[in-house]
Write a structure and sequence with these properties.
With 241 residues, this protein is mostly helical. It has one domain. The chain is built from 12 helices and no strands. The longest helix is centred in the middle third of the chain and has 24 residues.
Length: 241
């Protein structure tokens, strides 16, 4: 139960209290619960969507997006902002890129990228609300967080120390394939929408992972956050078109 509580505390703004400091092993096992946390976020959005049924589409979508951001505490948006700044300011240099990611300040590019991503999500949500396509609200957060164990399984963690290092070192790697297989089967139950969402998510994952390896030689917590935001955006936009 402790790894699940760790995952909930880290990935959401829920008031989770842990019984003491988690061990490195518990942190690693918490990665296995990330897909479930994504599913819970999606189900919360699905429920809110039902409550808001009949409200004006623009307001409906704005409330969904606001709740979505609030549930994660802006964690992944922060990673996206840091990654955007670092990718431009790093000038192709690995050490400089990693250094800029540690800077808590956000530059103009970070602001532009955040605005564009949120606008894309909002526009897609308006279209999905009008289409009555509520399944996308479950698929997007579920797939995005479900890919994080796969990222840590297949990609080196390049910033020594901290939470990310514990996740990388203590992820139960033998359990990830079975976890992903079960997750994929459930996604495919969504029919054509599930297939499309899965393909879009994997395409974004493959492209971003390639960029991470080329620039950094691996991943960081910030690039993992960027992955979540961009997968969510791709799934929403793809299902809305």
């Amino acid at each position: 139960m402790q790894p699940l509580l760790i995952a909930l505390q880290f990935l959401t703004c829920l008031p989770i209290r842990l019984a003491g400091m988690p061990s490195a092993e518990q942190l690693g096992r918490s990665l296995l619960w990330y897909p479930l946390v994504g599913l819970l976020v999606g189900l919360a959005l699905f429920g809110l969507n039902r409550v808001l049924a009949g409200s004006p589409p623009l307001l409906h979508a704005a409330l969904l997006l606001t709740t979505w951001v609030a549930l994660s505490g802006g964690l992944h948006l922060d990673g996206l902002a840091d990654s955007a700044d670092a990718w431009l300011g790093g000038l192709g240099d690995r050490a400089r890129t990693l250094l800029i990611m540690k800077d808590p300040r956000s530059g103009p590019l970070a602001v532009v990228v955040l605005v564009l991503v949120l606008v894309l999500k909002f526009a897609a949500l308006v279209a999905l609300v009008e289409q009555g396509h509520a399944l996308a609200l479950v698929l997007a957060p579920w797939l995005a967080r479900g890919l994080l164990p796969l990222l840590w399984l297949t990609t080196p963690y390049v910033r020594a120390g901290g939470l990310g290092q514990a996740l990388a070192d203590h992820l139960p790697r033998d359990r990830v394939p079975a976890l992903l297989a079960g997750w994929a089967v459930l996604v495919l139950l969504g029919g054509a929408a599930g297939w499309l969402a899965l393909l879009l998510a994997l395409a974004v994952f493959a492209g971003l992972r390639r960029m991470m390896l080329a620039r950094l030689g691996g991943t960081t917590g910030d690039t993992a956050g960027a992955l979540v935001e961009l997968v969510e955006s791709a799934v929403l936009v793809g299902l809305a078109l």
